[in-house]
Please model this.
Amino acid sequence: MGRETRDRLAAWLKETARRSFSGKAALVCLFGSHVSGTANEHSDLDCYFVPKTGEGRALARTFLLQGVGYDFFPLTWERLEGLARLEEPLLPLLGDARVLWFDTAGDLLRFRQLQGRLSAALRKKDLREAAARERAGRAWSWLPDPDCGLGESRLQAGFVLMDLAEALALREGTYFHNGLKRQFSDLLALRALPERFEERYLAVLKGETPREIGTACRALLESCPWPDSGKRRSPARSGPPDPEALAALYEELASTFQKIYRCAESGDRVLAYLSAVCLQRDLPWLELVSAYRYDDLAPLAGAARQAEAEVRRAVREGGAVLREYASFEQFEQAQKERGC
Model:
């Protein structure tokens, strides 16, 4: 997998939207590593589209190409407007997106105006500080209970770290342009971090019991300028979806499994942890993040491989079929047979 394949997928998306989705979709946008220039041979093509009609949602795709998972997903104008008001995370989806295709000049103008509104909101101290307080309150709400299990404690601690990081970035009128991939280094580059922030952050990852993790989270939160929100929440629990939905979910998440394996090889302890938290959030019936060890990422990689095998087995035994393609040509032929 490389840039050539991602470029061919982008060209296919543009042509498919132009040919089959005029009047049904407003925009197709690229974001992420392919746009920022941080992609590697295992990177996917991050893409979303804005539907105009219910028929427009048929542009959505999840699939595996040469072992890399792809998710071309719909994002409504309402969600984009929320991003422009700093009401949601994932600001790069608006701020750093590159328009690959647009249906009308009005659609493009509306999108550009939302990008401008996001930039303006980040420059307004009252707006960004209100958004930062909201994210910090959410971080406090995930403070782990010392009596919960290790897996749940690590999961909640991961939510604390991600929400708090976003709060600190918003306070300075910015966000993480490179997503989770470089969030920690970008976080440490902020101008006004609390004293001993890096040490306290890493103490959360190094905790080996729920009590140690909870204590480290509290110390980190208390070092920041926002008080305890007084609210607490617990991660959602659910069993696996039906086999067809599980197949689509796995196609969407396959790149996160790969990210964990690469982190284990490179020794990227922070990204390994955050990736495992995201994977555990989306696969709550599997045990994964409890295998994390700061000084040894091999058990986490092993747990991820076991979880991946369990998901694939459940898809297969449930009678569903993964959309897996060995080459771009095979993918393209399958889309032609599908009528796209």
In short: The chain has 14 helices and six strands. The CA atoms of residues 36 and 58 lie 27 Å apart.
